[in-house]
Amino acid sequence: MHDPAGEPLVFAGLYSWWKNHALPADHPDRWTLTTTILTSDAVDELLHIHDRNAVPLPRDWWDIWLDPKIEGDQALVDAAVQAALPVAAGLEVYEVAPIPFSGGWAEAGRKTSTLARGGVTAVIGRPHG
Known about the structure:
Organism: Glaciihabitans tibetensis
EC number: 3.4.-.-
Protein name: Abasic site processing protein
Number of strands: 5
GO molecular function: lyase activity; peptidase activity; single-stranded DNA binding
Strand order of the largest sheet: 2-1-5
Low-confidence stretches: 107-124
Distance between the termini: 31 Å
Family: Belongs to the SOS response-associated peptidase family.
């Protein structure tokens, strides 16, 4: 998928840091970062791929989504999803050859990294929690 004008795709995401209270304060694994990408019901133009699609924010929403002064509530999420509908509907889709997956997570991560290098996709997130 890509923007027909070649603009970057920026997806709404959330992140949160979680403290493991069972570990000492100086332990390197005391904090864990968790992330997610927001999804919504797929727009008609993408239903042939999946019944959900990521929420691609229009450029005028990038600063809104990242503004720490804006309350991150359900109303904001709903508005972002609505603003994303025309972006999602306008994406161009072309099929690429599948990359064989032979097992383990290390292998999956390596292949995902290889794929990610070919695009201009960014994920921007706001704190959750």
